[in-house]
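Q: Given only this backbone (254 positions), what sequence would you predict?
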């Protein structure tokens, strides 16, 4: 069974954390409809949706990916770099506990799931404004016991690593080279985003499908030849909160 943990959009999303974007008006009801369509896309790709409890006073809580890193053998409960998000971890830990042994990141370490890109047994981990070196090293110590390799990657100009690069195939990555150094990804096949769509590197590979934002048609055209079927979704309102298609779910097999 493939589970996708999600959380509803809170009214308080209008007060979300912002690092690289200016604050603009978010249509909360439209954001909820877009999130529901995103969940429907996950279901169409074989996921069972498990909704975490609402967090009405936590503006960024819909972005559940950032508070956990889930691998086949374990789960790591994150310690977000944004202090306002640290209260989100209790509910995701409770949801993951029946499925995985749990580990935690301790102070002074910080790490957010949006900075962790898994490719096989390698975890590329972004050193960003949200993930620091102590957090990265703690993650390395935890996962090395399960035969995972951690590769640090500097992130500049983007909130998270997965704002700059994601998997779109078994050995194919979609990249914005302005935000991350392509050299870090060795001999993987790289597809560059269209220069006019800097935020288009964020894609979500689920089974045989690739959930991808409708707002990036030029880059999407370059992805049409991949083996994964592209499933377009509109996440325009969530994007105003620096969200993307990866960050609205935590997906794992049971």
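A: Predicted residues:
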């Amino acid at each position: 069974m493939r589970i996708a943990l999600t959380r509803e959009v809170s009214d308080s999303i209008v007060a979300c954390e912002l690092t690289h974007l200016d604050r603009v008006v978010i249509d909360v009801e439209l954001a909820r409809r877009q999130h529901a369509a995103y969940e429907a896309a996950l279901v169409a790709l074989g996921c069972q949706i498990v909704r975490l409890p609402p967090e009405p006073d936590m503006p960024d809580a819909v972005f559940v990916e950032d508070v956990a890193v889930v691998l086949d053998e374990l789960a790591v409960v994150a310690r977000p770099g944004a202090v306002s998000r640290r209260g989100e971890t209790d509910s995701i830990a409770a949801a993951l506990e029946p499925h995985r042994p749990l580990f935690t990141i301790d102070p002074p370490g910080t790490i957010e799931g949006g900075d962790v890109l898994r490719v096989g047994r390698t975890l590329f981990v972004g050193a960003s404004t949200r993930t620091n070196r102590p957090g990265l090293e703690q993650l390395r110590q935890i996962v090395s016991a399960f035969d995972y390799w951690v590769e640090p990657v500097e992130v500049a100009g983007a909130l998270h690593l997965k704002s700059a690069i994601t998997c779109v195939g078994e050995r194919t990555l979609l990249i914005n080279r302005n935000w991350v150094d392509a050299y870090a990804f060795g001999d993987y096949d790289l597809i560059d985003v269209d220069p006019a769509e800097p935020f288009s590197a964020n894609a979500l590979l689920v089974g045989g499908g690739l959930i991808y934002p409708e707002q990036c048609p030029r880059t999407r055209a370059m992805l049409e030849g991949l083996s994964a079927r592209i499933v377009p979704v509109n996440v325009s309102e969530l994007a105003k909160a620096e969200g993307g298609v990866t960050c609205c779910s935590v997906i794992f097999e049971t």
